[in-house]
Protein: Oxidoreductase
Amino acid sequence: MFNALVLDKAREFSASVREVDDAFLPEGDVTIEVAWSTLNYKDALAITNRSPIVRSWPMVAGIDGAGAVVQSSSPLWRAGDVVLLNGFGVGETHKGCLAQRARLKGEWLVRLPPAFSPRQAMAIGTAGYTAMLCVLALERHGLKPGQGDVLVTGATGGVGSIAVALLSALGHRVVAATGKASEHEFLRGLGAADIIDRAELSAPGKPLQKERWAAVVDAVGSHTLANACAQTRYGGAVTACGLAQGMDLPATVAPFILRGISLLGVDSVMAPMSLREQAWARLARDLDVRKLEAITSEIPLSSAIEQAQRLMAGQVRGRLVVDTAA
Ligand SMILES: NC(=O)c1ccc[n+]([C@@H]2O[C@H](COP(=O)([O-])OP(=O)(O)OC[C@H]3O[C@@H](n4cnc5c(N)ncnc54)[C@H](OP(=O)(O)O)[C@@H]3O)[C@@H](O)[C@H]2O)c1
Structure:
């Protein structure tokens, strides 16, 4: 028997941490003992039933996990290998990793980079790996340090805080947009050179505004993303990866056709393995693990439901790493 955060919809929606056994595990060729998991925005949406994330019931929540392989019929993995998992529909259509045990597909797994412990990999989680996917997309566009200010929205969130840490470590001048007036010191500690109130970006704005940003990492969507595009300098790029303000994009084509800016979409869930491995290798090289520790709060699996509600209420700073044994 082992503990899992089970979401069900037998009659009404329910979420509970309870004991299940191996018969509850789904199909798959690799079984892992999940030592650490994490709470991402998407996990919180699923656990609080705020959005139709889960598409098969009952579900075990948890889009991320890290731990050791205990059983494998996959040619890729052997018992004892230490691996991590991000996305691929896990926690949505395939039972997930907010549990002490998970059965997964070998081709979904990434070998744990030697630079990180399983706990650190989950402190990074999908949020941090997505932040790195945004950095890689901007670099493919041609962004280099010294080209100008880089805006990060949702800056105290999971994606945002790791994006601030990564971009500043790479030598960019980072401007962090946040709604949390109490967290300016935290953001400066991560490397933000300047901080703006997110209210400057969240209301409807003009199609073209003063050119401010060489590049943008946006985790917020809606008017914030529209304004970020309207403020991006000629030829600059904006990565869109999130919807914390909203799914809508109330923008015009003006920044694209008059300033040649690029809007780069970033998806972590179905990203190909080569890109995942590149992102994790770059995280190992570029992310300061002391900053990661400052971003991370540890919670027990037994409190994950309550913490998901806090995350949805915008009360969480940085990343929540989940100890599945507690
Ligand atoms: N594309 C992908 O594959 C992918 C992967 C990971 C995450 N995401 C998405 O990226 C977004 C961020 O994820 P996360 O894990 O970083 O979530 P998070 O930790 O909850 O961070 C979101 C941050 O956005 C800001 N925010 C919240 N509500 C807002 C609002 N109404 N208006 C403006 N800003 C608001 C807050 O930052 P401040 O308080 O500092 O303003 C909050 O901390 C989510 O929408 C998530 O679904 C997408």
Remarks:
- Residues 118-141 form the longest helix (24 residues).
- Residues 40-42, 126-127, 130, 154-160, 178-180, 198, 202, 219-220, 224, 241-245, 266-269, 311, 314, 316 surround NAP (CB under 6 Å).
- Residues 131 and 163 are 5 Å apart (CA to CA).
- The chain has ten helices and 16 strands.
